[in-house]
Amino acid sequence: MEVLKRLDQLELLVVTGKGGVGKSTVSAALGALLANRGRTVLLLEVDPRENLHLLLDTPPSGGEIVEAASNLWLQHLEPRKLLDDLVREKLKVGALVRKILSSPVHRHFTEGCPGLKETAVFGRALRMVEGHGPKKLRKPDVVILDAPASGHGIAWMAAPRLVAEVISSGPIGHLATEITTFLEDRDRFGSVVVTTAEEMPIQETIELLEAMEQRLDRRPELVVVNALYPSAPKPRRSDDEATRLWARRRAVNEEELARLTSIWDGPLAEVALEPIDAGPTLVGVVGEQLALDLRRT
Ligand SMILES: Nc1ncnc2c1ncn2[C@@H]1O[C@H](COP(=O)(O)OP(=O)(O)OP(=O)(O)O)[C@@H](O)[C@H]1O
Ligand SMILES: [Mg+2]
After folding, report:
1. Handedness of CA 75, 79, 82, 86 (dihedral sign)
2. How many domains does the structure of the chain reveal?
3. What is the CATH number of the domain that holds 272?
């Protein structure tokens, strides 16, 4: 219950983890869970493949904020466009804006400068949290950011600080500092790390947890171990290949889960591998399992 209460209080939640472990599924499930608890939730997706709407059974957002269910909103963001919007917002003078946006220097700088796109995404999330959203959703209670799997998740969370250190003045420096302060606020910002109980994802999760502690002095609010094989029956000589494979995968899951819990004593939720295709039914089932586990923590 403690974790749910904690998640209920936060204004921005980043869902992070290695590629393909179930970040988008868990983001959608957590979003629906918090929306059902009465919070107004905005899910932000940055992945150019744009698939959160498929998981929630709504038309693509096309960059707009759309309502996927009661209290549950969704928006797809393009970092490139956010950076251009920032130039427009800060410079205001039309001719100057056009000149900068069409200049190759601006393109190269914004493409090449590490952390800038992440800062622009966090900047948008912060504006929403502060109540500067469009008329139809002026101020969500919580923004959930389904972060893309770009290297380690720490790169996302540490990006604004990196930018603030390099660019200390001007509109970008000011924004990066503002975001850095926000991300340090334990009452407002939190994270959820998603992993599967396989060797590489667990290894990366352990490294991510250590890096978060060392570089950000933070722990995630929750670790979700997703897509666990169900317990296998006792092995018998007559087992077919599929049953033996199932038992082996389950054994790997148990081994890797034990490796994780030997270094992580914080909140942990386990979600089963379901024989269901990507979509609203899977999101619903994952949400039920998360809710059950979180009520116990
Ligand atoms: N608990 C589960 N049971 C069965 N299938 C699952 C489960 N969780 C996720 N999946 C499936 O695994 C695939 C990857 O899930 P998802 O897209 O949520 O991962 P992701 O971490 O967001 O991936 P990416 O890094 O590519 O954005 C999808 O096909 C999804 O339907
Ligand atoms: Mg995804």
Report:
1. positive
2. 1
3. 3.40.50.300
